[in-house]
UniProtKB/TrEMBL annotation:
This is Uncharacterized protein. The lineage of its organism: Bacteria, Bacillati, Actinomycetota, Actinomycetes, Propionibacteriales. Residues 158-173 have a biased composition (Low complexity). Residues 1-24, 154-195 are annotated as: Disordered.
Length: 219
């Protein structure tokens, strides 16, 4: 058993004092070992919340901002660094609680490699497998494993607009008939459908955000 003293905890600082760029760089550096640990276990992933908690604890730089507002920038730095190192993208290992990487991942891949993946979650599944193989993950099958799509939800969609009710037509009068046409009760005009409010989506996992503005899955 080692008697070496543990490294002292970093002095707590608020990100507003450190600055956005310096905070992002420090968090990205702290994110690498967390993601490498996941890369070393076949089919392991890290959630946005887990990563955000880990990097703040490791750096001492904290923020009260919702995770969805800043974790994407950290993962973008991780993506660019992975590309510069000619490694599989470690950012693919970080997902929402629903298993999705979201459009932010696609934007980072496009900045790093020049091509935007049409299916971000499918692309991330391939990159995760490449990570497990590159870092020889524990539990990796002898055949090299297979990509696993972890996303298991569909983005929220607006309900279709209600169709207006068709107006009733008066019966035609038979030629030569002396009987007056029957009176038809005026049709009731359908009430206009209430105007739909746009659904606010989380920029990371693209699920509907409640009225609080804070994602239930990412924050």
């Amino acid at each position: 058993m080692s008697d070496a003293p543990a490294d002292p905890a970093p002095e707590p600082r608020d990100a507003s004092e450190v600055g956005p760029e310096a905070s992002r760089a420090a968090w990205a550096e702290a994110a690498r070992p967390v993601l490498l640990e996941a890369a070393g276990r076949y089919r392991a992933t890290v959630t946005y919340k887990q990563l955000s908690t880990a990097v703040q604890a490791a750096t001492g730089i904290t923020t009260a901002r919702p995770v969805a507002q800043w974790i994407g920038g950290v993962l973008d730095v991780v993506t660019q660094e992975s590309h510069a190192r000619d490694e599989p993208l470690l950012s693919s290992l970080c997902v929402s609680i629903q298993g999705s990487v979201g459009e932010g991942y696609a934007e980072s891949v496009e900045r790093a490699r020049g091509v935007r993946p049409e299916d971000p979650d499918g692309h991330a599944a391939e990159e995760r497998l490449a990570c497990y193989r590159h870092w020889e993950a524990v539990g990796l099958p002898r055949d090299g494993g297979t990509p696993l799509r972890t996303a298991h939800f569909k983005p929220a969609r607006k309900a279709p607009a209600a169709k207006p009710a068709a107006a009733k037509r008066a019966p035609a009068r038979v030629p030569g008939s002396s009987a007056p046409p029957r009176k038809v009760a005026p049709s009731k005009t359908a009430a206009p459908a209430p105007e739909e409010k746009p659904i606010r989506l989380c920029p990371n996992c693209f699920t509907a955000v409640p009225a609080t503005g804070i994602c239930d899955y990412c924050d």
